[in-house]
Amino acid sequence: MTSTAQYKDRNLIGIIGDEDSVTGLLLAGIGHIDAKQKKNFFVVDSKTSKQQLEEAFQDLLKRRDIAIILINQHVAETIRELIDEHTDAFPTILEIPSKDHPYDPSKDSVLKRVQRLFGSD
Amino acid sequence: MSGNNQRLAVFPTRMALTTMKLRLKGAQTGHSLLKRKSEALTKRFRAILGKIDEAKRKMGKLMQGAAFSLAEVTYATGDISFAVQSAVRQAQLRVRTKQENVSGVMLPAFELYSEGGNAFELTGLGRGGQQIARAKDVYAKAVAQLVELASLQTAFVILDEVIKVTNRRVNAIEFVIIPRVENTIKYITSELDEMDREEFFRLKKVQGKKKRDRAADEAVRVARLEAEPEVEQHAASVLHDDEDADIIF
What we know:
The complex is a heterodimer of chains A (121) and B (249). Chain A has six helices and four strands, in the order αβαβαβααβα. Chain A is an alpha/beta fold. Chain A is globular, with a radius of gyration of 15 Å. With 249 residues, chain B is mainly alpha-helical. In chain B, 68% of the residues lie in helices and 8% in strands. A two-stranded antiparallel sheet of chain B has the order 1-2.
């Protein structure tokens, strides 16, 4: 189950999203850049390739100091399989809407898992 | 799997029977306890689910509001994204994970805390400072909401796992352990009954033989008496070394 060691040092909030979402959230103060110049945020624009996205996502996942990863929903759609695969408790992946894409509950990975569970009820 | 109701390999003794009966009792108690635990967890699971659903919708609206305030900033100050991104140093808003015991399961909960001063003091975001400060506030509130949502979501994922494991155990006890022990009990009981019957049969046979032997001896004695009526009989004496026949009731 969840051992203390797993989450003791996790205290950062990572973010993958479009420029506006990232800027706003960085303004709030969750941005972090560590000694090795690694950032906990990744800006996605129309030129970002799916592979770059996947790499950035995997990088954030592997880090042991990130507890929550915020990701715009339309970005999440692009790497839907990776997100569906991630079933660990840490880090938690939270899908947030962006300025142009309002929140759609039917596309949310976590809610989909729930649907699968309660589909039989 | 469920057709494979073998029994445990034990010697069919009365002690084994008692042990098996105790084990059956234990398994039944364990089963009902686990089932109750699973039901309680499922109830809480559904409650959390409802909360998550509601929280996510609220969050949608909140983010819209935040995006709007950011648009205001851009209108007043111009594009600040580059300045903001390059001003990043250490995170001021961080989360702490606490363990909470919820109906027997340790669930993590995230807590937002501030660390360090305001990095943006050093940036040149002086112009339109009021809008920026306001946007910062709105986004900070949004982050707080998001952190709560994340707590709910983690709790949800972990509960899901625990419920699956508990249900698996319940089913294992119900369909494997209990039938197996019941079969063992039936086997031991039948073996003991068989042994009793054998014992009884053997007893009856020996009694029959003893009776026949005694009847034969009696006949010989009567015959001898009739043939030689004057011969003295001497009574059996306890001091004689004769072998005593076994006493069989």
